[in-house]
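S1.2 Input.
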Amino acid sequence: MKNNEMILLVRGARQRDPQCQLALIERFRPLMLSMIRRYVYETDVLDDYLSEAAIVLLNSVETFNEELGVPFSGYLKKELFYYFVNVAKVHQNFCSLDSATGDDDSFSLLDTLCDAADIEGDYLRAEDLSALQRYLPQLRERQRWIIEEHYAKNRSFREIAASIGVSANSLVKLHRRAIADLRTFFGLDLVN
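S1.3 Output.
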């Protein structure tokens, strides 16, 4: 919809023209539904919240100031956002993880939660480590040494440089070359 048509509909709705009001409600129905789905989790009362969103739209028509240069759609989106965020705050269900699960008080909700396991992430990390262990021996001895010192022993370049009597900058360059070689081995031709 062009901005001029929108302005005409807003002006008509402000004059209480029912056709303009209904046209605005229908044009912004997808935005209103999107906001409801995003911030309100009670799907069984969708029609009620849609009616409330229509009321917010009609109130926004009254408070909209077109002289500010803000498009009505942006203004309405902000108004709907604040309205439904406040609705979500009011309807939050607070539940303590320390509360009892049933008749006996021996178990809490926290006891029923399973450990958060990232199976896919663990698998990918294990594969990456396995590949790294295959490619690490292919590096030159000094490159392999700097990787092991920096990552396995968690030492800074300054600390390593001070222990062997060289500049930290030379170790940084050695590290960069080692990382570049590892990326080549992994098939990642990346810059840096």
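S1.4 Remarks. The chain has ten helices and no strands.
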